[in-house]
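Narrative of activities, Objective 1.

The group set out to show that a structural description can be obtained from nothing but a protein's sequence at a throughput compatible with the screening campaign. Below is one input-output pair from the validation batch, recorded exactly as produced.
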Amino acid sequence: MRAVKSNYYQIVIAGSGFSGSLTALALGQCGFHVCIIEKGEHPRFAIGESSTPVADMILRALSSRYQLPWLHDFSRYGSWQKAHPEIVCGIKRGFSYYKHYPGQAFFTDPDHSNELLVAASASDSVSDTNWLRADFDHFLVRQVKASQIDYHDHTEILSATRKENTWTFTANCRGERVTFHGAFFIDATGSGHLVHKLLSIGSTTEGFLTNSFAVFSHLDNLPRWTDVLHQKKISTDDYPYDPDHSALHHILDEGWAWALRFNNRQTSWGFVLDGTLQHEDTKELWHAMQIKYPDLGRLLKNAAFSAQPGGIVRSGRLQRKLSRCFGEGWVALPHTAGFVDPLFSSGIAFALTGVERIVQMLSAHKAFDRRLYEGLTEYEVALRRELGLLDLLIAGCYKAMPHFPLFNAWSMLYFAFTLAHEKRRLQHKPVGCLLEADNPEIQRIAQTSYEKLRSITAQKTISPQDINRFTETIRKRILPYNTAGLLDPSHRHMYRHTATE
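Output recorded for this entry:
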């Protein structure tokens, strides 16, 4: 490689997924001289993700606070379709769960004993969205370029040194050696690999209760689950929405499967399974799940893999967290700092919460002074609390998956805590942690409920009385936050608009 040029920036961002690009755009509006360094290029495959009411609130807040009016359109399905129908997404009206049992066709009853639908919006036009990340991330990169923010793709950072409050990064840009200088560095790459290579900051799975991995892809022309239900003569007349227009979860004994539909006839599909189970060959595992759960096989039998990724992708263990989230002159965005599991679609909100915090702190402390680092200390504490609470809630779900009534009751903790956080934002109160993870009472409820769930699921047999008592305990504990009638028997597991008005 030969030397070609040197660049100086106030802030250097590594990674151009939606978090990195939005951070760059907001910081650019604050007057910072920013660049993004991207190892790859766009458009590129990324697993489908779904937004939530909190994620959409943050998009609107970023749009208003940093004069990014176009961003507001992406916070609701209706405005997204009106402004940018060419950027593929899907309707996400809420969270849908269907319990499958090994070797059996899906079945339920008039009380929806094996179903749970939790609406997050009142109509299609104001609903959340399933993001085709390849399209949305590529759009954001085009906005970065249009905003005159320097963008360097096909550029791999090789080394970093810091001297006199300035970073010097050496990178390989299309075979040429390039040097970048910056006062502050943001890792938005979405994994711990870069900070480990540059700064020897380790990533660990220690301390997590959840242990899961995923096998996933994008599929073309996947049959609709609603059509399967109708073929089985299962009524959907009292459903609050079409479950194919949602984050659709098929709950299994050893994990779950997701289906996120997009407007272009593609569907993001994946199995997320207990990581303690015996790992098989990826293709064998994909087909084994279809055999074990017949109606999933019915769905997947004739589905074709989309051009991207073109086959099945397998992850390692999903759970990870950096030993440190910040240091002198650098910070990791949340999706780089740690991850638990995609079960509650918390990834976008978790990432955007961090974007919101980091941009606010940097814009308030442009000299990168001591007060910034006090704020970053609080940021790291908040991330730890959020990851810890998410881990606890998701680990409980895995314990309860073989027993759907327990899963149903336990999952209400997540929805109740979400309602509490939505209410705080809508009332314009100071925002703490996602899911109100900084609230000691919420942490106490989660911890004591998890211990009770663990003791129940450790029993050889679980009686209906055990389940009823546990359900009643959860109903009482979430009462101060439950503005949606969660666990009201009259709803029969069909909850209409649950987002706080």
